[in-house]
Amino acid sequence: xxxxxxxxxxxxxxxxxxxxxxxxxxxxxxxxxxxxxxxxxxxxxxxxxxxxxxxxxxxxxxxxxxxxxxxxxxxxxxxxxxxxxxxxxxxxxxxxxxxxxxxxxxxxxxxxxxxxxxxxxxxxxxxxxxxxxxxxxxxxxxxxxxxxxxxxxxxxxxxxxxxxxxxxxxxxxxxxxxxxxxxxxxxxxxxxxxxxxxxxxxxxxxxxxxxxxxxxxxxxxxxxxxxxxxxxxxxxxxxxxxxxxxxxxxxxxxxxxxxxxxxxxxxxxxxxxxxxxxxxxxxxxxxxxxxxxxxxxxxxxxxxxxxxxxxxxxxxxxxxxxxxxxxxxxxxxxxxxxxxxxxxxxxxxxxxxxxxxxxxxxxxxxxxxxxxxxxxxxxxxxxxxxxxxxxxxxxxxxxxxxxxxxxxxxxxxxxxxxxxxxxxxxxxxxxxxxxxxxxxxxxxxxxxxxxxxxxxxxxxxxxxxxxxxxxxxxxxxxxxxxxxxxxxxxxxxx
Length: 494
Hints:
The protein is an alpha/beta fold.
C-alpha cells in the first residue's frame, strides 16, 4: 500500500471519501514525517496538537456529510499568513513572539474548506530573497541532493519552507506568496507545482506585506490537480482587501485534461538570455515539442521591455518595502530593544530585528523615494512597468498562453551566491515580469538536469485566466511524466 505521506491531495481526498483511512490517521503520519525531517529546518512553528484537533473535527464533519474542498488534508502555512493564536513572524526576529488575534482571509478560507494546519513554515525574512537563506530562523535546506554530491542546496525562495515541506512529503500542500517569483522559483528547483494567481484573485488581508502592488498568495503542491483544488479553496473576493477583485472563482479542476488543439502558445525571444544553461534551453524546446504534439500552435512573440524588468522590480519592490516595514518599531508588538530615548529605541530595535537583506532593501527603497531621486528612479520605473504590462497585452492579441523556463538553472549550493546580491537577484529574471504585469503564472516540473536536480517550465496566462494555465499545465504534466522525488535517506538519518 502507498504510504499516506506519498499521496497527492486528490488521491487522499478520494481515500478519505471511500473510508480507506481517516483524517486523523493521515494527519498523524504527516506529523511524524515533520518530526523526522527537522534537519530540513522547514518549520518555524509546528502545531501537532492543533492539527489533530482539526483532523478529528474533520472526521466528524465527514460522517455528517459536510465535506469541504480540503476536508481533512494536512497543509503547511507559510509564516507570512497571520494565524489566530499561532505565532506569526515573517521569519524575522523583529516579530518573534507575535501571536495574531485574527486569521488571514486565505487561511480562514482554507479552514472553512476543512484544511488541517501542520504549522508555520519558514521563508526568506519578510519574503525578501530567492534562496531561503535570509530567514531569522536559519537556512531551509532542500531535500534534493545532486548526483554523487552531499552538499546542501537551496529550496528556492521566498517560499522555501513551503517548497521543501511539499517536496519532502511532509505536507500535502503549502501556501506561498509570490512578489517576484517566490512561489514559482522554489517550486521549480524542488520539483513540484506552484501557481501565482492573477493579482487580486486571492485576498492579501492578514498577509504580512512586502510590496503591496506585487504580493499575491497562491498554492504549492505535487500536481497540477492539487494546485487547482487548493487555489479554489484559497481564492475569492474579500471586502477587507481593496485590491481583491469581486468575480466568481471558477472550478479549476473542471478544465484538467481538456484538449489544447488549436491553442496558440507564445515563445518570447527575450527569454533566451546570455549565459543560460544549455539544459534550460533543451527543456524549453522539449516543452514546445510536447505542446506541438498535443495540437497547440507555436507562435514566436516579442516582449521587448523584458530586459528592464529586473531593474524595474528592484526599484519598485524596495520602495514599497521601505514604506510597509516602517510600522515595525517595537512599540506595539514584536521585539523591542530599549534605548536612552525614543529615537534610539527605534534605531536599536530595527537594527537588531531586521536582517542584512531586509536592511539593504529598506535603504534602497528609501533612497529611490527620496527628494531628488523620486523622478529619476521611482517614477521612471512605474512608466517602464506600464510598458512591460503593455507588451503582454499586445502579445495576447496573438496567443492564448506563453511558455518560458521558470529559472535560469537548477538549485545551487547554499552559500554559493550569498555574497553577491546581483547574482541572487538574477534567480528571478524569468518570473519578475509576471508580477509587474499582475498576470497569473505557473511552474511545473519538466525534467532533471545532468546533476539529477529538477528543472521547471513556466506558463504565463491572461489576467484571471488561470483556467488556461491549468488546462495547458495538465497536458505538460502528462507529457513530462515527472515522477522523480528526493532521496530522503540523508534527512531521516539525522
